[in-house]
Amino acid sequence: MRTTIMTMAMLTGIAAAAQPQYDNWYFGQFSAVDMGTATPTVLANGAMSTAEGVASLSDAGGALLFYTNGVDVWDRTHAQMPNGFGLQGQSSSSQSVLAVPDPGDTMRYYLFTTPALMGEGGQPYSGLSYSIVDMGLNNGRGDVALKNVPLVPMVTEKLTATRHANGHDTWVVVHTWNTAAYYAYPVTCAGIGTPVVSTAGRVMDSGTPMSGFGAIGCMQFNAAGNALAATWGRYAPAGAGVEACVDLVWFDNSTGQFTDGFSDTHAAPPANHYGYGVCFSASGQRLYTTDNGGVATAPVHRIWQYDMNTASPELSETIVLSTGAEVDLGTLQRASDGRIHIACSRTPFLGRIDQPEVLGTACGVTLNAVDLGVLCALGLPNNWDGAFPTISYDPIGLRDTTVCNGGTVTLAPSWPAPPVGATYLWSTGATTPTLDVGTTGTYWLQVQLPCTTLADTAHVLFHDLHVDLGPDRSLCLDDSLVLRVRPNGASVLWSDGGTDSVYTALAEGLHWVVLADDRGCMGSDTVRVAFRDCTCPLFLPNAFTPDGDRINDAWGPAYTCDLLDYELAVFDRWGHELLRTQDPAYAWDGAMNGRPGGTFTYTLTYSWWDGGAVQRRRDKGHVQLVR
Q1: Is residue 517 in some structural domain?
Q2: Range of 36's domain?
Q3: 247 in a domain, yes or no?
């Protein structure tokens, strides 16, 4: 059952929290940490030394695949991939690189890259470009199969992604320089599509005269994929220094459109502050940002918290950390346990927010939470929520089903929402998303998606566990009712706690039985028992004396019930019939044409209604006629 013929990619729900693909972090000055352990484990095998943005990817089991700073790419053995050099990211770009699985091929990954400061400083390209890593190359260690395909020029250093509403495609988002434009590129199994361009939030520039400065900073979606926050810096008017800016915009992950949210600006004149890191808590209810500034003799590095549950989150801003230590606060990134880690540049430590959902300083910020043993830098892996849909072995999710005691069952895929563009074919020839089934059998479903075909089967068993104790009973006094069931392997439970197949009802009232088998089926029935007086006493004397004294002169029955039929016959010793009557009121006077008395035999049949049933009786006896 549960057969899958597909390029294993997309489908079902999206895991916003624990994702083994993001367990291994490679960043900074040869820094490496395994985030998949209860306590982060520092690794000593990193081959990359870089200043800012990185991507680090593992497989579904948490085994490292590759890592990159957007310029060079290293494989799982920490060797540089043969063609893994010269990518058009930049080691000093805030979000230099982003890894996105190809929805149509599980062996391939897109690497999107951004330049630093819009390509200043001799970089070959000022905009967003992409390359492709194919894990089927280089003996399974991967290599760059396609490199540096340009998309849009003049972008900031901000680069992130979120899952498309259809559950399997991806939106890759960048912001262009000196505009308020967001570009949302759809990544589908057919490739990279035409971007959706939206104008939302503020124009991102540096102001005058700090050309290029405002390109710095990160952006990130919340786990739901409907809100994006970005940090940046710009030169404030009237010589007030550099302001740290935060913009939040809303996103429609079905259309790719952005709309205005809120903006906030942090400054402490005459000091300079620039925004850098940004991260939502796992629930999306809290937003954190970092900025750095102050003056040379009095640096100030801050972490801000916003309450996204309020109508105006920008009014909820709270400083949860402010320090003058020799540290620059860089990227904020959430680990699989929900805690948010902080890049503490120029120190050998990772900081951490231990309880990101808690408001205020009680969220617990620590700047020396993880001792790396080597220097950290400004960047941490550019992980994004929803990067990996939760793929089970059984993506359609038909289930073997037992239907008890008749009825029908509806077979249907178990994914949370139907994939866009799916067509269906059932083994019955039906082309509907669901199938009503009323007979035992094995049923299969094929689902054709734009780039792949899924298939699954389910066995349906219709199983009767039928119990019939018959109608309610009215019993004669002193009678009992014996009830029987056929368990056929099922367990039996009677109303008196008995577990045998035979049960004797001795008392008035309701009697029941329940059968249950290992298929999960149950059957039950009840019978009500009542008792009544069923007797109809009828008395015939064993002698009479027809001598005219009006004492025992005639012989006949005495009775107390209403008879339905009656027949009395009398015979002599030779078997000759002397009389026969159907009248219970008739009494024999002994007349026999002068014959003497003696002993005679009789037969008697009669019936009566006892209140619940017709009762019949047949008797034989002797009577003495004395003259």
Answers
A1: yes
A2: 23-371
A3: yes
Statement to judge: residues 57 and 141 lie in one domain? yes
Residue 236 DSSP class: P
Q: Cβ distance 385 to 225 under 8 Å?
A: yes
pTM over 0.85: no
| Strands (E) located in 69-215 | 73-75, 97-101, 108-113, 128-134, 143-152, 155-163, 170-176, 179-188, 191-192, 196-204
Both tokens assigned to 1? 């059952």
Answer yes or no: is pLDDT of 282 > 90: yes
My answer on whether 220 and 238 are in the same domain is yes
Shared-domain flag, residues 229 and 282:
yes
Tens-place pLDDT, residues 364-391: 999 999 999 999 999 999 999 865 544 4
Query: Are 497 and 592 in the same domain?
Result: no
Instruction: Tell whether omega for the bond before 40 is within 30 degrees of 0, i.e. cis.
Output: no
Cβ neighbours for 614, distance < 8 A, ≥ 6 positions apart: 564, 607, 608
Q: Which two tokens stand for residue 233?
A: 């810096």
Question: Could you tell me if 276 and 417 lie in one domain?
Answer: no
DSSP 419: P
**Residue in the block written with tokens 């009678």:** 479
Return the pLDDT at 283.
93
Q: Where residue 418 sits, what CATH number does that domain have?
A: 2.60.40.10
DSSP assignments along 293-339, one per residue: EEETTEEEEEEEEEETTSSSGGGG-EEEEEE-SS-EEEEEEE-TTSP
